[in-house]
Amino acid sequence: MDSLHTAGIHFAEVLQAGPPWLEKFWISVTSSADPKCVFTICFPLAYFLDRRVGVSVLWVGLLSEWLNVILKWFLFGERPFWWVHESGLTRKQLVTLRQFPVSCETGPGDPSGHCMITGAALWPLVTALTALASRHSKSLVVKLSPFGAYILLLLAVGLSRIFVLAHFPHQVVGGILTGAAMGWGLQGRTPVTRSLGFFVASGLALLLSSLALHGLVIAAGVDIDW
């Protein structure tokens, strides 16, 4: 893993050595793609456009948020900002990296929550826009434009997380693939006909299950809060 981590650090160096104007862009992307935006921005907008799509965004976002936490507990995953010092890499070779206000994230880093949760929650919206485009245009470019924008967005989010030293490249790739797979797998299983109480109860059940799992893992002697 050290070789993989070292390669990730060098990739972050290359990103940070880019044009100065890109710095503001990457920081803006990583801030705008915060997972909480799925619930505060994406869900209300999707619900306004179509109730079924909005509920799907909410449901997939809720489950992906929960699974991301669980995966991080078991996969652990170093954070570049901390690893570069703890590994002793800076004593072995010259490393030119910059720190940003959003760099000092704590907790396990694998997979990337920004990539995974955003990728999962936006899948229902992207497929709905693709279907809409297909009904109004015969152009393949127009039909595929929503998925093209989706892919470009996730790539930008992933690169921004590497740029600010929040994640290694392999954590970003894992987050993107897991998120897209969740979105694809859960989209058709959204309980759109259920009441608000069902979603409140589901959220509470996920919260309690994660707290119970946390307690069990700690009791087993695994320090997931390292």
From TrEMBL:
Swiss-Prot/TrEMBL GO biological process terms: gluconeogenesis; glucose 6-phosphate metabolic process
Pfam (any one): PAP2
Keywords carried by this UniProt record: Endoplasmic reticulum, Gluconeogenesis, Hydrolase, Membrane, Transmembrane, Transmembrane helix
SMART domains, A to Z: acidPPc
Pathway: Carbohydrate biosynthesis; gluconeogenesis
Transmembrane segments: 56-76, 116-133, 140-162, 168-186, 198-222
Superkingdom of source: Eukaryota
EC number: 3.1.3.9
All copies of domain Phosphatidic acid phosphatase type 2/haloperoxidase, residue ranges: 53-187
GO molecular function: glucose-6-phosphatase activity
UniProt keyword Endoplasmic reticulum present: yes
InterPro entries: PAP2/HPO, PAP2/HPO_sf
Location of the protein in the cell: Endoplasmic reticulum membrane
Protein name according to UniProt: Glucose-6-phosphatase 3
Organism listed in the record: Thinocorus orbignyianus
Lineage: Eukaryota, Metazoa, Chordata, Craniata, Vertebrata
Annotated gene: G6pc3
